[in-house]
Amino acid sequence: MPKRTENLGRSEFKFLLKAIVLEPCDVTCSDGSCYIGEFKYGVKHGLGCYHFRNGDRYDGEYFGDKIHGFHFSFVRSAIEAAKKHVHGAITTTFDPKAISASSKSPIFIVDLGCSTGPNTFIAIQHIIEAIQTQYQSHNLPTPEFQVFFNDQFSNDFNTLFQKLPPNRNYFASGVPGSFHGRLFPRQSLHLVHSSASLNWISKLPEEISDRDCGAWNKGRIHYACASREVVEAYEKQFYMEFDTFLNARAEEIVSNGIMALQIACAHEGIDVHKDLYPGKDFDLLGSCFMDMAKLGLVSEEKVDTFNVPIYFPHLKDLKRKLESNEDFIIEKMESLEAKIQLVPNVEMYVSHRRAALEALIEKHFGEGVVDELFGRYTNKVKEFPEMMDLQNLKLDGLFVLLKRRLHP
């Protein structure tokens, strides 16, 4: 790895970046901060480590010179926490002789909600290694693997494919489209995986944007801290889509095939009207929107019709829903002990939130709003630094392993 440790000013730093394309590098700036990681087209892009001058550090993913860490760090911690669960589940549940007509037949795997990597590659490698161990324990030849990477049409599949591990032991294909509907032929998949994607709903409840309805979520952008009618509308939409998801996978997964899911659930006993920690975060961001509306920077009507499409079910409700499903058997359901990476400063915390929500905000409000919004949000987070303590999330990562019942 080339190493450059000169004391660079901003202009020299930019010049250096422009000269580097697809090259790992170690750069020290004049303020004492240091970046060690990957560059693309002259900016931080890929995996890297940033050492702040105050001694803090950030290990994660960059996308177009911006921290892409909310998705990366939170999901990575969940995937690593689930590794032993996945391996153990495949060891006890994945029967090569029962799941495939021939030991020479390829195994078809899909990761739903893959984003742009690299978390998806880590999860897939864990799965393949566990399946290989199973075949070896049965004295069977290791099959070939076909892996499908799925996400919305808007996902940057070009970036995903550029990040594919060069020495991967599987064939790879991209499958764009919503996983709330059918994506594959009947009885074609042997294993389905999804991590931190099922909490996102594909469509917001219509009533929360209807000013004539009791569930109108005026002045807010999420169900937490909102009225009970808004909470119930989100809940209804989530479980309607979850049913659709399960029905689609029931068609696509072979008999005895398995599905490994990781879902964030709200702690039992909390009041989502006031205790759900991510809701406090969205409430603070919503107040920034309202401040901008009062100043005429955005339309108040636009604010009243914008809501974040994410829902965190209660564990007991989700378990009840899964137990009532006639197509799958619950083989395992356990909480994950994920180590959530602490956010060292306000700027990084805000960058995390911006990475997760920027595309949604720009789609609804148009360009030119995001910088002003998150500038105001940064100032408000400074007033409430407790927002940055992710240990207060009051969410549990849930690992669920489902086995497809025999097809009729």
TrEMBL record:
Any one GO molecular function term: methyltransferase activity
Entry keyword set: Magnesium, Metal-binding, Methyltransferase, Repeat, Transferase
GO-annotated biological processes: methylation
Source species, domain of life: Eukaryota
Transmembrane segments: none
SMART domains, alphabetized: MORN
GO annotation, cellular component aspect: membrane
Entry-linked Pfam families: Methyltransf_7, MORN
InterPro entries assigned to the protein according to its UniProt record, in alphabetical order: MeTrfase_7, MeTrfase_capping, MORN, SAM-dependent_MTases_sf
Presence of the UniProt keyword Repeat in the record: yes
PANTHER family: S-ADENOSYL-L-METHIONINE:CARBOXYL METHYLTRANSFERASE FAMILY PROTEIN
Protein name per its UniProtKB record: Putative S-adenosylmethionine-dependent methyltransferase At5g37990
